[in-house]
């Protein structure tokens, strides 16, 4: 095989999600798609809000000749301006267009940020459990991931962070609302984290950046919006997308927002914009950038996700599972009834239920269920979850 040794090890490392995907395809072929209960992927099942289609039709009918043209690597100026005004309100921070860079989804945003910030050997500190791609993203740019535990309810553990953030740390990467746990980090924790990072930056003699990955920001079941990191720390960057809140994951549209008081602002902007270009993204998809200004206040109907969360959580609890009630995102992260989550996920496969072992997210002893699926999948799977629990107990 001609592929690099590194990619060979990566393919092995990525194998759990891939295995579930392949297992799902195999089971669907044998039993029919309706008889397989697939909770393995965070692929939103709700359609985009109707305004997305309306805006697309409008822009195509009235669109400028430059609709499909190259543009500045940072994105369309008018889109960045409208987004900055929206973000200034949302985050209570005076962002301007130059603080916003349009990207190919949150994944693109994270890679651009890490390309701009990391030197070989730098560490990216991440609370676990975490979105599994982070390890690859850090290594894409010469860095390495260092994981820190969270508390029993998956909140930030400030003592663990204090112990983990050191001279090699360049970035602390958080994700709230979180995939896979659904937890939201509260304002007190973010305030303490900001203080910790100021102190650690002084000792390290370089700024340690706080990067907040927040594609689920609008998918919350609490009365209050998640607090903004911009309120608590200046060397802060937000990476996000419209993949989940507008159900547009295939369109690859997202952005980076940087704190207006981040150190060395001009160099940071320049580095992010150049990274967007030389990573081969060039610019975020044009058509999406044209329609976004009309969609910033929009979101899918989050009450539908809440109903799915409640139904699945209730069914699992009745079957004897123990599970944290997540205030955001569209994942449940129940405790595995067996110590070995991989073995338990195999029991679920016997019931034609596809889940991902927590080990794949740095959270052994748990498993992840993406409940952004239709209601029949949830109803159909509940007897299988009960049988798998019985088998695990016997
Ligand atoms: N970050 C987290 C926590 C995610 O769950 C995902 C996708 O599932 C991404 C980033 C990537 O999002 P996007 O599709 O916008 O690149």
Automatic annotation (TrEMBL):
The keyword DNA repair does not apply. Keywords: Aminotransferase, Transferase. Its cofactor is pyridoxal 5'-phosphate. Its EC number is 2.6.1.-. Gene3D superfamilies: Aspartate Aminotransferase, domain 1, Type I PLP-dependent aspartate aminotransferase-like (Major domain). It is an enzyme of class 2 (transferase). InterPro entries: Aminotransferase_I/II_large, NHTrfase_class1_PyrdxlP-BS, PyrdxlP-dep_Trfase, PyrdxlP-dep_Trfase_major, PyrdxlP-dep_Trfase_small. The keyword Transferase applies. It comes from the Bacteria. It holds the Pfam family Aminotran_1_2. Residues 36-381 form the Aminotransferase class I/classII large domain. This is Aminotransferase. It comes from Desulfosoma caldarium. The lineage of its organism: Bacteria, Pseudomonadati, Thermodesulfobacteriota, Syntrophobacteria, Syntrophobacterales.
């Amino acid at each position: 095989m001609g592929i690099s040794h590194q990619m060979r090890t990566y393919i092995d490392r990525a194998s759990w999600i891939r295995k579930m995907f392949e297992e799902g395809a195999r089971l669907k072929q044998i039993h029919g798609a309706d008889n397989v209960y697939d909770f393995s992927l965070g692929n939103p099942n709700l359609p985009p809000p109707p305004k997305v289609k309306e805006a697309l039709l409008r822009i195509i009918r009235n669109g400028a000749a430059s609709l499909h043209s190259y543009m500045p690597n940072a994105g369309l100026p008018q889109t960045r301006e409208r987004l900055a005004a929206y973000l200034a309100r949302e985050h209570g921070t005076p962002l301007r267009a130059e603080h916003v860079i349009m990207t190919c989804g949150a994944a693109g945003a994270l890679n651009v940020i890490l390309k701009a910030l990391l030197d070989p050997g730098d560490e990216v500190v991440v609370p676990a459990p975490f979105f599994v791609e982070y390890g690859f993203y850090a290594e894409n740019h010469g860095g390495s991931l260092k994981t820190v535990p969270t508390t029993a309810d998956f909140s930030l553990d400030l003592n663990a962070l204090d112990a983990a953030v050191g001279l090699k740390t360049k970035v602390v990467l958080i994700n709230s609302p979180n995939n896979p746990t659904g937890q939201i980090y509260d304002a007190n924790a973010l305030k303490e984290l900001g203080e910790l990072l100021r102190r650690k930056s002084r000792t390290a003699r370089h700024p340690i950046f706080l990067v907040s990955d927040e594609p689920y920001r609008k998918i919350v079941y609490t009365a209050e919006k998640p607090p903004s990191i911009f309120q608590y720390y200046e060397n802060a960057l937000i990476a996000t997308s419209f993949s989940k809140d507008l159900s547009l994951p295939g369109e690859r549209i997202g952005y980076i927002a940087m704190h207006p008081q981040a150190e060395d602002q001009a160099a940071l902007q320049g580095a992010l914009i150049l990274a967007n270009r030389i990573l081969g993204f060039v610019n975020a998809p044009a058509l999406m950038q044209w329609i976004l200004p009309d969609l910033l206040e929009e979101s899918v109907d989050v009450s539908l996700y809440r109903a799915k969360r409640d139904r699945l959580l209730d069914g699992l609890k009745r079957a004897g599972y123990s599970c944290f009630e997540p205030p955001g995102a569209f994942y449940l992260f129940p405790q595995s009834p067996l110590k070995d989550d991989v073995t338990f996920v195999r029991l679920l496969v016997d019931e034609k239920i596809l889940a991902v072992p927590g080990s794949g997210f740095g959270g052994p002893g748990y498993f992840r269920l993406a409940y952004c699926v239709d209601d029949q999948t949830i109803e159909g799977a509940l007897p299988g979850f009960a049988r798998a629990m019985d088998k695990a107990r016997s």
